[in-house]
């Protein structure tokens, strides 16, 4: 089934749940999901002090577009700080992270597949 249709809805109506794999202080609010291909629109939340280093750098088989709208975090691999107003587009296979967020952060994220890949 395609992502559901929603008219404007407050994000506060969507519950944050722990991410998989679990990292203390990292949670997500799934705004929409297409179960047929696992495309997802979500808000990713870093609580103050969140450290994703136990997961190491990430790569995945989907496209990922992210926009930081609150707070900041440090990319441990790049040694750079990214903050509210910064964005990224990551193609499948692009290495990114891990991150540490001293004061917390929130990102809007869209994950999707192209060319018929699931």
Going by CATH, what is the homologous superfamily?
Jelly Rolls
Strand content: 35-45%
Number of domains: 1
CATH class: Mainly Beta
* Proper CATH architecture: Sandwich
Shape: globular
Order of helices and strands: EEEEEEEEE
Q: What structural class do you assign from the helix and strand content?
A: mainly beta
Largest sheet: 9 strands, antiparallel
Helix content: under 10%
Quantity of strands, as a count: 9
Unreliable segments of 5+ consecutive residues: none
Treating each run of at least 4 consecutive H or I residues as one helix, how many helices? Answer: 0
Query: What do we call the CATH topology?
Result: Jelly Rolls
Please compute the radius of gyration using only Cα atoms: 14 Å
Distance between the termini: 13 Å
Mean pLDDT: 93
Describe the protein:
This protein is mainly β and 118 residues long. It has one domain (17-112): Jelly Rolls, CATH 2.60.120. It has strands spanning 17-18, 26-34, 39-46, 50-51, 63-75, 80-83, 87-90, 99-101, 105-112. Strands 1, 2, 3, 4, 5, 6, 7, 8 and 9 form a 9-stranded antiparallel beta sheet that branches. The two termini are 13 Å apart. The model has no long low-confidence stretch (mean pLDDT 93). It comes from Arthrobacter cupressi. Residues 11-108 form the ChrR-like cupin domain. This is ChrR Cupin-like domain-containing protein.
């Amino acid at each position: 089934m395609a992502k559901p249709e929603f008219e404007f809805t407050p994000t506060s109506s969507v519950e944050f749940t722990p991410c998989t794999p679990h990292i203390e202080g990292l949670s997500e609010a799934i705004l929409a999901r297409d179960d047929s291909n696992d495309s997802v629109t979500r808000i990713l939340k870093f609580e103050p002090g969140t450290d994703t280093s136990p997961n190491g750098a990430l790569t995945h088989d989907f496209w990922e577009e992210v926009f930081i709208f609150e707070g900041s975090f440090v990319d441990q691999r790049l040694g750079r700080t990214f903050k509210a107003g910064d964005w990224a587009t990551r193609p499948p296979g692009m290495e990114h992270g891990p991150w540490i967020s001293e004061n917390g952060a929130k990102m809007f994220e869209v994950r999707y597949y192209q060319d018929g890949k699931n």
